[in-house]
Each structure stands twice: as structure tokens, then as C-alpha cells.
TrEMBL record:
Signal peptide: 1-24
Keyword presence, Acetylation: no
UniProt superkingdom: Bacteria
Protein name per Swiss-Prot or TrEMBL: SOUL heme-binding protein
InterPro entries in the record: Reg_factor_effector_dom_sf, SOUL_heme-bd
Gene3D superfamilies given in the database record: Regulatory factor, effector binding domain (3.20.80.10)
Keywords: Signal
Length: 205
């Protein structure tokens, strides 16, 4: 059973609030909409470079702070990296830890992503691919995510498409955003591809 605490999201939203910014103030990972049907979309994403760290079943508080430290200059280049949206997360499944990832800004990725200075932060790649996505409002919790995933899988099946077993979800908004206006999403990679990341850069020993 998948269990993900909302602590990490609360920390994320608090950090965005303290920065005094809203969703529109941040660079968002680019994608192309292939099909839209109400709350559902099929999107094509390019390869994304991510700063990633493990997220256990007990929550994402420490995970967020590790990544926030990385973009705040706690990396080998001591370079500050702009915050982006969304924050991608993969839930823990049984004994496997989940994952939290910040998207590296496009220009930073092109110029050369600074290497992490911590062993528990990695620079990874999210392979390009086609995803089915469901968007929903509210203050996201485990129940909402599970219900959204079930709806999305039903929609995919009804369209005669196939998706992998792994799910990832995303959060976009600071805490002052009213629940009805919040943007939350659940993703499933189509064509039986797995939602996975490839480690491309690790901190030096």
C-alpha cells in the first residue's frame, strides 16, 4: 500500500509562501498537449533534468529541505538555482523508498547542472515520453491521489491505451492558493513505459 505523508508538501508550500511568490512566478516544465478531455490530458514531455532525493513513507520533510538546500547554493559550484514547478514525487511502495524531484531550469541544464555536494542528492534524467495526466483541485492527500489514479487508469483503459504500473504526482501551488484553485496532478506513463529516472551525476566521494 502506498503511503505518503503531507509533511513534505506542507514544507514546500511554506517555502513558496515565504518567498512571496505564486505558481505563475516560476518556470514550469514544458510539455505539449496531445489530447484533452475534461480533467484528463495526454501530454508529450521532453527529457527533463531533475535534482532528486529519496522520500520515505514517513514523509517528505527532509527530502524537500535537501533539495531546497541544493538549489540555494549547497552544491559543488555554490550556485543558486531558481525554483521551478512542479515538484514531482513518486510514492514509496512496500520497501522501496519514494522520490522527490525538482526540475532543473532549462537554461541551467543546458549550461551545465551543478553537481550535488551531498551523497543523498542526485542529478537524474526523466526520460522523454507520453503521459496520461489527471488534474484536480484541493489540498492533496493520500486519499485524493489514490482516487485520482483510479480515475485516470479507468480513463486510459476506456481509450484502449496502456500505462505502466508506476505513478507519479505533482504539486504546483503556494499555501495561500484557495483549495478550489490549486493545481495537483497524477501522471501515468503511456505505452507501457515505466516512470523512471536515470542517474547522470552524483556527488564526488
Amino acid at each position: 500500500m502506498r503511503k505518503v505523508s503531507g509533511i513534505g508538501l506542507a514544507v514546500l508550500l511554506a517555502a513558496l509562501f515565504l518567498a512571496g511568490k505564486g505558481r505563475a512566478d516560476y518556470e514550469t516544465a514544458a510539455y505539449d498537449v496531445v489530447e484533452k478531455e475534461g480533467e484528463f490530458e495526454i501530454r508529450d514531455y521532453p527529457e527533463l533534468v531533475l535534482a532528486s532525493t529519496a522520500m520515505g513513507a514517513s514523509g517528505g520533510n527532509g527530502s524537500f529541505m535537501r533539495l531546497f538546500g541544493y538549489i540555494s547554493g549547497s552544491n559543488q559550484a555554490k550556485q543558486k538555482v531558481s525554483m521551478t514547478t512542479p515538484v514531482f514525487m513518486q510514492p514509496s511502495v512496500e520497501q522501496d523508498a519514494g522520490m522527490m524531484s525538482f526540475v532543473v531550469p532549462k537554461q541551467v541544464a543546458e549550461d551545465g547542472t551543478p553537481a550535488p555536494s551531498r551523497q543523498d542528492v542526485n542529478i537524474t534524467k526523466r526520460p522523454a515520453g507520453r503521459f496520461a495526466v489527471i488534474r484536480f483541485a484541493g489540498r492533496m492527500n493520500d486519499t485524493m491521489r489514490e482516487e485520482a489514479e483510479q480515475k485516470l487508469r479507468g480513463w486510459i483503459e476506456a481509450k484502449g491505451l496502456k500505462a505502466g504500473d508506476s505513478m507519479e504526482y505533482a504539486s504546483y501551488d503556494p499555501p495561500f492558493t484557495p483549495a478550489p484553485l490549486r493545481r495537483n496532478e497524477v501522471f501515468l506513463r503511456l505505452q507501457s513505459d515505466k516512470v523512471a529516472t536515470e542517474t547522470v551525476q552524483e556527488p564526488s566521494p
